[in-house]
User: Fold this.
Amino acid sequence: MDDADDIYMQSWTGTILGPHNTAFEGKIFQLKLFCGKEYPESPPSVRFQTRINMACVNPETGVVEPSLFPMLTNWRREYTMEDILVKLKKEMMTSHNRKLAQPPEEEARADPKRPAKCCVM
Assistant:
Protein backbone atom coordinates (compact mmCIF):
# COMPACT_ATOMS: atom_id res chain seq x y z
CA MET A 1 0.00 0.00 0.00
CA ASP A 2 1.19 3.45 -0.83
CA ASP A 3 -1.12 5.45 1.45
CA ALA A 4 -2.33 4.12 4.80
CA ASP A 5 -5.39 6.39 4.54
CA ASP A 6 -6.42 4.87 1.19
CA ILE A 7 -9.40 2.83 2.40
CA TYR A 8 -10.12 1.63 -1.13
CA MET A 9 -6.57 0.26 -1.53
CA GLN A 10 -6.11 1.95 -4.91
CA SER A 11 -2.53 3.20 -4.68
CA TRP A 12 0.36 0.74 -4.48
CA THR A 13 4.14 0.88 -4.64
CA GLY A 14 6.22 -1.90 -6.16
CA THR A 15 9.93 -2.60 -6.40
CA ILE A 16 11.85 -4.40 -9.14
CA LEU A 17 15.47 -5.42 -8.68
CA GLY A 18 17.34 -5.06 -11.96
CA PRO A 19 17.93 -8.48 -13.54
CA HIS A 20 21.46 -9.92 -13.85
CA ASN A 21 23.40 -9.59 -17.10
CA THR A 22 21.40 -6.55 -18.23
CA ALA A 23 21.92 -2.79 -18.15
CA PHE A 24 19.46 -2.81 -15.22
CA GLU A 25 21.65 -5.02 -13.01
CA GLY A 26 22.43 -3.65 -9.55
CA LYS A 27 19.65 -1.05 -9.70
CA ILE A 28 16.45 -0.85 -7.69
CA PHE A 29 13.38 0.42 -9.53
CA GLN A 30 10.40 1.91 -7.68
CA LEU A 31 6.98 1.95 -9.32
CA LYS A 32 3.55 3.34 -8.53
CA LEU A 33 0.50 1.29 -9.43
CA PHE A 34 -2.92 2.92 -9.23
CA CYS A 35 -6.14 0.95 -9.44
CA GLY A 36 -9.04 3.09 -10.63
CA LYS A 37 -12.72 2.49 -9.94
CA GLU A 38 -12.93 0.00 -12.82
CA TYR A 39 -10.23 -2.27 -11.36
CA PRO A 40 -10.01 -5.29 -11.64
CA GLU A 41 -12.01 -5.14 -14.87
CA SER A 42 -9.55 -2.53 -16.21
CA PRO A 43 -5.80 -2.53 -15.63
CA PRO A 44 -4.09 -0.28 -13.11
CA SER A 45 -1.96 2.60 -14.32
CA VAL A 46 1.73 1.84 -13.84
CA ARG A 47 4.46 4.46 -13.51
CA PHE A 48 8.16 4.10 -12.76
CA GLN A 49 9.28 6.48 -10.00
CA THR A 50 12.89 5.60 -10.77
CA ARG A 51 14.12 6.88 -14.13
CA ILE A 52 14.48 4.06 -16.63
CA ASN A 53 15.14 3.60 -20.32
CA MET A 54 12.83 0.85 -21.55
CA ALA A 55 10.86 0.47 -24.78
CA CYS A 56 7.41 0.40 -23.12
CA VAL A 57 8.05 3.31 -20.72
CA ASN A 58 7.54 6.99 -21.52
CA PRO A 59 10.98 8.53 -20.82
CA GLU A 60 9.50 11.85 -19.62
CA THR A 61 6.75 10.62 -17.30
CA GLY A 62 7.80 7.06 -16.42
CA VAL A 63 4.35 5.79 -17.41
CA VAL A 64 4.22 2.24 -18.74
CA GLU A 65 2.41 2.71 -22.06
CA PRO A 66 -0.38 0.13 -22.36
CA SER A 67 -0.08 0.15 -26.16
CA LEU A 68 3.56 -0.96 -25.80
CA PHE A 69 3.08 -3.39 -22.89
CA PRO A 70 0.71 -6.17 -24.00
CA MET A 71 -0.20 -7.29 -20.49
CA LEU A 72 -2.00 -3.98 -19.91
CA THR A 73 -3.56 -3.94 -23.39
CA ASN A 74 -4.83 -7.51 -22.99
CA TRP A 75 -5.71 -7.13 -19.32
CA ARG A 76 -7.52 -9.97 -17.52
CA ARG A 77 -9.11 -9.52 -14.13
CA GLU A 78 -7.13 -12.53 -12.83
CA TYR A 79 -3.84 -10.63 -13.17
CA THR A 80 -2.24 -9.32 -9.97
CA MET A 81 0.17 -6.53 -9.07
CA GLU A 82 2.85 -9.18 -8.72
CA ASP A 83 2.12 -10.43 -12.26
CA ILE A 84 2.72 -6.90 -13.59
CA LEU A 85 6.05 -6.60 -11.77
CA VAL A 86 7.21 -10.04 -12.91
CA LYS A 87 6.28 -9.26 -16.53
CA LEU A 88 8.08 -5.90 -16.41
CA LYS A 89 11.19 -7.63 -15.05
CA LYS A 90 10.99 -10.15 -17.91
CA GLU A 91 10.59 -7.25 -20.33
CA MET A 92 13.87 -5.83 -18.98
CA MET A 93 15.57 -9.05 -20.07
CA THR A 94 14.33 -8.99 -23.68
CA SER A 95 16.87 -8.44 -26.44
CA HIS A 96 15.54 -4.95 -27.29
CA ASN A 97 15.77 -3.72 -23.66
CA ARG A 98 18.61 -5.57 -21.93
CA LYS A 99 21.45 -3.40 -23.24
CA LEU A 100 19.75 0.01 -23.32
CA ALA A 101 21.83 2.68 -21.58
CA GLN A 102 20.22 3.72 -18.31
CA PRO A 103 19.93 7.19 -16.76
CA PRO A 104 22.22 7.95 -13.81
CA GLU A 105 20.79 6.69 -10.52
CA GLU A 106 20.56 10.15 -8.96
CA GLU A 107 17.90 11.08 -11.53
CA ALA A 108 14.76 10.01 -9.68
CA ARG A 109 11.28 11.42 -10.05
CA ALA A 110 10.22 13.38 -6.99
CA ASP A 111 7.61 11.83 -4.73
CA PRO A 112 6.43 13.69 -1.65
CA LYS A 113 5.32 10.51 0.10
CA ARG A 114 7.62 7.91 1.48
CA PRO A 115 6.66 4.72 -0.36
CA ALA A 116 5.66 1.49 1.32
CA LYS A 117 6.69 -1.67 -0.50
CA CYS A 118 4.12 -3.85 -2.24
CA CYS A 119 6.23 -6.48 -3.83
CA VAL A 120 9.94 -6.95 -4.51
CA MET A 121 10.76 -8.79 -7.70
Remarks:
- The mean pLDDT is 89.
